[in-house]
Specification:
This protein is mainly α. It is built from 15 helices and no strands.
Length: about 300
């Protein structure tokens, strides 16, 4: 039922993986929402709050709230939306991230939430999912690599894909698009392009482990070269993740790009899995009503109602 004679998985097997993976995703999401701590939008706040003409006034603490670490071009583009109220930007940004994840994973989207680091990254509002989109799109639309090079930089090791495959035109397009955006930004504020690398070199912290970065970059190069020679574009996602200078459980969300390479199924969803998902949501809803915050709010509301019913 789940394997063909040649050992490959059948559509029914992929459907089962998708549906039960979706159940796991709903479980992880429910647990996260019931136990989440910290500030939602911790990273996206930096994108909303950035001063386009002075973005690098923060110290070297990698976890500093509001610190901006991307290129001046990114800061200047984000300045176009800084007029939005924070809560509007937060939900709009979250919607963009969710749409990006849905575009990557399609019918596997909910199953991807079974990876806690993807849920955490969405909660914090970082750009790993958008980087994954740029890398996947960049295989056929090389100009998309400009987004990678002008933000987290090192996942741009994926450009070796074009070098190994001798796709010089695609490489030229990627570099030209990056150079065009950077050139316009430099013309607007040349000093910021000298401040940016200095600000990156100031970053320090226990989780940074700079001595591991060269080893991970070397491994990323090997993976890209192997993938290019064997026509495996999904290796660009893995290599880009390894190449991230700051690699922690949250930034592993770049692996969401692997969702673009998962098989598509055309069979109807499995009813047992959907029924299980319904039960998970029902259970999560019941538990949410029992959390201290909800109990306190319900008690306060009941007290107000009783006070309103008391004759004066």
């Amino acid at each position: 039922m789940f394997r063909r004679a040649d050992g490959s998985l059948t559509p029914a097997a992929y459907r089962a993986l998708r549906d039960w993976g979706s159940v796991a995703g709903l479980v992880v999401l429910a647990i996260f929402l019931l136990t989440a701590y910290g500030l939602p939008g911790f990273d996206s706040f930096a994108y909303w709050h950035v001063d386009a003409w002075s973005p690098y006034h923060f110290d070297g603490d990698p976890g500093q709230f509001g610190a901006f670490r991307y290129s001046p071009a990114a800061a200047q583009l984000l300045a176009l939306v800084d007029w939005l109220p924070w809560h509007v930007f937060f939900y709009a940004w979250l919607a963009v991230l969710l749409l990006a994840l849905a575009w990557l994973a399609r019918e596997w989207t909910i199953a991807m939430l079974a990876a806690p680091f993807i849920v955490l990254d969405l909660y914090m509002g970082n750009i790993e999912v958008l980087l994954a989109v740029a890398i996947v799109v960049g295989v056929r639309r090389p100009a998309a690599w400009a987004f990678v090079l002008l933000t987290k930089v090192t996942p741009g090791v994926g450009l070796l894909w074009f070098v190994v495959r001798r796709e010089w035109r695609n490489l030229a397009i990627a570099l030209a698009a990056t150079g065009l955006v950077a050139g316009i930004s430099f013309a607007l504020a040349p000093s910021l392009w000298f401040d940016w690398p200095r600000s990156l070199l100031r970053v320090d912290g226990a989780n940074y482990l700079p001595w591991l970065t060269p080893a991970r970059l070397a491994a990323a190069v090997v993976i890209v070269v192997w993938g290019a020679r064997t026509d495996r574009p999904w290796t660009l996602v893995v290599a880009g993740t390894l190449a991230l200078v700051w690699l922690d459980p949250k930034t592993l969300a770049l692996l969401a790009g692997l969702g673009a390479f998962l098989p598509r199924t055309q069979d109807a969803p499995d009813g047992a899995a959907l029924e299980a998902a319904r039960r998970v949501l029902s259970f999560a809803g019941d538990r949410a009503l029992e959390t201290p915050l909800v109990v306190t709010l319900r008690a306060a509301w009941a007290q107000r109602e009783r006070a309103g019913d008391t004759p004066s």
